[in-house]
Design goal:
- The chain contains 8 helices and 3 strands; from the N terminus they run H-H-H-H-E-E-E-H-H-H-H.
- It is mainly α.
- It has 2 domains: 62 residues, Fe,Mn superoxide dismutase (SOD) domain (Helix Hairpins, Orthogonal Bundle); 105 residues, 3-Layer(bab) Sandwich (minor pseudopilin epsh fold), CATH 3.55.40.20.
- A 3-stranded antiparallel sheet has the order 2-1-3.
- Helix 1 packs antiparallel against helix 2 and helix 3 crosses helix 7.
Length: 221
């Protein structure tokens, strides 16, 4: 079976200092992310074995483990590339236009994104996603790595709110971490992801030979 692989960081551990310390990046990538990759591979292998054995009870437990660990792997892989030592400022181009359209202004977007991160109770992520049905940008909290997410929403910008992402440097002042990260957002990477997700479309298409109400087609249901 295909194995999930830990991606290399696209920069040195200390590249994002002083906003995120090199020690945090080393532990975060080499320990936490690596563990999600290892656990996702173990869950995948276990699922293959359980299916051969027709062990339905074990399949259910392993599917939950895979959802947690694989989602952690995916979100971290996006997060690393969402950041850059040459980042910060404000986005430009089509992505900036979409931010203005869906949130009013970049400052409004920044405020909403930071407030979403601050409102997460426990472990999770703040995520800017593309709603492939509604065709708009949206901000949502993600509990842990996979819970309370909207199906069909593609993440393009994610902020890790787990304590291991900031506590060594910011301790209980996590809002300082939320503010610091605005100095290192890689708008080029995020804007490219925004362009790519434009092709996603999960809306129902009109079945041949059946009459479909126009308003239902428009709503995508």
């Amino acid at each position: 079976m295909n194995q999930y692989i830990l991606p290399d960081l696209p920069y040195d551990y200390g590249a994002l200092e002083p906003h995120i310390s090199g020690r945090i990046m080393e532990l975060h990538h080499d320990k936490h992310h690596r563990n999600y990759v290892r656990s996702a591979n173990e869950a995948t292998e276990g699922l293959a074995e359980a299916r051969c054995q027709k062990n339905a009870h074990r399949i259910g437990r392993l599917a939950q483990a895979l959802a947690f660990n694989l989602s952690g792997h995916i979100l971290h892989s996006i997060f690393w590339r969402n950041l850059s030592k040459n980042g910060g400022g404000a986005p430009k181009g089509l992505f900036a236009d979409a931010i203005g359209r869906d949130f009013g202004s970049f400052e409004d977007f920044k405020s909403q994104f930071t407030q979403t991160a601050s409102g997460i109770m426990g472990s999770g992520w703040a995520a800017l996603v593309w709603d492939s049905v509604g065709k708009n940008l949206s901000i949502m909290p993600i509990h842990d790595h996979q819970s309370q997410t909207t199906q069909g929403a593609a993440p393009i910008m994610v902020l890790d709110v787990w304590e291991h992402a900031y506590y060594l440097q910011y301790q209980t002042e996590k809002t300082r971490y939320f503010e610091a990260v605005w100095n290192i957002w890689n708008w080029e990477d995020i804007g490219t992801r925004f362009e790519h997700v434009q092709t996603l479309d999960l809306r129902w298409t009109k079945p041949s030979g059946r009459r479909t109400h126009p308003e239902r087609l428009h709503a995508g249901v």
